[in-house]
Amino acid sequence: MKRYEEVEYWDLTDNPKNEIYKGLIKVLCNNSDRFYFITRKELKYNKEIIAQFVPYVTETYKTKKWAGTETKGPAATVFVMESNEETYKLLVKYANSLYDWVAPELPEDLTFIKNNFIWFSCTTHEEFAGFSIRSDYYKNLMFGIEGLKLEHIE
To answer: What's the pTM value of the predicted model, to 2 decimals?
Structure first.
């Protein structure tokens, strides 16, 4: 397995929907230790949906800075949780596309982590998402998601 000296960055050029979304979330859940999403005090969310994730939450904390975002407003709440088959089912149950993860229904900014390295993050309200790749193994996983549209960032 080739490891890179530096990280390669790949942005999504289209909102993954339906089967492409399910394929993306499956690869992310199967190859991550954990993931998180955030809520912001000034926005409303469906508390019943968030409650479905609570059994898998390993940590919550407040911050003004998380992957791809820094806020000048109130701190966001980060919900860190296990990445597993049950959380996969919840992620595809409540959304049909990546950018469905936005207030007022759903928490925002899904971010997936493996070995303390953020390898996928998104800023949903800005419809921005991308991969940080540092090995051929993860690059092959990324390219193996059928229908996913990507652009290499120099």
So the answer is: 0.93
